[in-house]
Amino acid sequence: MTAVELDIFTNLGEGSTSAEVARRIQTDPRATEMLLNALVSLELLRKENGRYFNSDLAAQHLTGGSRMAMMHQVHLWHRWSTLTDCVRKGTSVSERKRDEAGTEAFIAAMHRNASERAAVVVCAVDASKSRNLLDLGGGSGAYSIAFAQANPHLRATILDGEPVLKIAARHIAQAELSTRISTKAGDMLTTDLGSGFDLVLLSQILHMFSPEENRRVLQRAYDALDHGGRIVIQEFILDPDKTSPRWAVFFSLNMLVGTSGGSSYSAEEIQAFLVNAGFRNIQHVKLGQTGLMVGEK
């Protein structure tokens, strides 16, 4: 994480001495050499005649643009270090507002994850008859893009913060879908969501919110849907006793250190949120590490 944060892998270039790297990243030469030697021992670097070179793995995943997604892990490292104080207080004790670099790192990591899962979600949902998608907290646009690519008749609206939408616009343009995917800056808890949608997607959103906030956002999603429309929620879903699956359990702690009231939720809890909002015919679809909760208006 320190090497990623200092951007050592990028600054090695085609091979450098420890002194050259220290000068480029403005660090102590002795300490930099010690760190580079440790990276060699981890087989992330190789050392030849006093010069350090990236391994193929490091060159592919830890340099340039690829480094940006890894910076999200660096930020998680810092937040997880506050876990003891969070347990004492019952909420996050870290500054939660991201700067531009933090937003870029977070969305880059989320885009990588979403791009890997999107095709599976699209297949599980079967939105072939859907025409108007509202993607709440749509981030990089990966899911809207996947739905639009699978259904040439579908249009999507992504609602998220303005800094995030600037990133989403790049991905939408790259996918050549700017005429079918629009963006709307706002807060899903307060901004007018509009109406006339037949599909609402909330992918990895509920875990950021408290139960009260989730009841609010799902009621607002219900109101934005036409009769017969569906809501699709993707989450790390806990088993009823909340001690498994392990990934979802630890992700709940991740929300403790990173949000004011967020958590992982069980399928039963999410179903209760949906029923409270008026949804019916609720189904739980397991997708491996994540799961879907699908409801109908």
Task: Please explain how this structure is put together.
- Helices cover 49% and strands 20% of the residues.
- It is built from 13 helices and eleven strands.
- The radius of gyration is 22 Å and the shape is globular.
- The N and C termini lie far apart (45 Å).
- The mean pLDDT is 94.
Mean pLDDT: 94
- What fraction strand? 15-25%
Spatially, the strands of the biggest sheet line up as 5-4-3-6-7-11-10
Query: Any idea what the shape is?
Result: globular
Enumerate how many helices there are, as a single number.
13
Detail the poorly predicted runs.
Answer: none
Helix fraction, binned, reads 40-55%
Could you spell the SSE succession in H and E letters? HHHHEEHHHHEHEHEEHEEHEHEE
Question: In total, how many beta strands?
Answer: 11
C-alpha-based Rg, rounded: 22 Å
| Structural class category | alpha/beta
Summarize the structure.
The protein has 297 residues and is an alpha/beta fold. 49% of the residues lie in helices and 20% in strands. The strands form 3 sheets. The protein has a 7-stranded mixed β-sheet with strand order 5-4-3-6-7-11-10, with helices on both faces. A two-stranded antiparallel sheet has the order 1-2.
Task: Name the features.
13 helices, single chain, alpha/beta, 297 residues, two-stranded antiparallel ribbon, 49% helix
Write the layout of secondary structure elements.
Elements: H1 2-5, H2 8-11, H3 18-25, H4 29-41, E1 45-48, E2 51-54, H5 56-61, H6 64-80, H7 83-89, H8 100-125, E3 132-136, H9 142-150, E4 155-160, H10 162-174, E5 181-185, E6 197-203, H11 211-224, E7 225-235, E8 237-238, H12 246-258, E9 265-266, H13 267-277, E10 280-286, E11 291-296
Parallel strand pairs: 3-4, 3-6, 4-5, 6-7, 8-9
Antiparallel strand pairs: 1-2, 7-11, 10-11
Helix pairs in contact: 3-4, 6-8, 8-9, 11-13
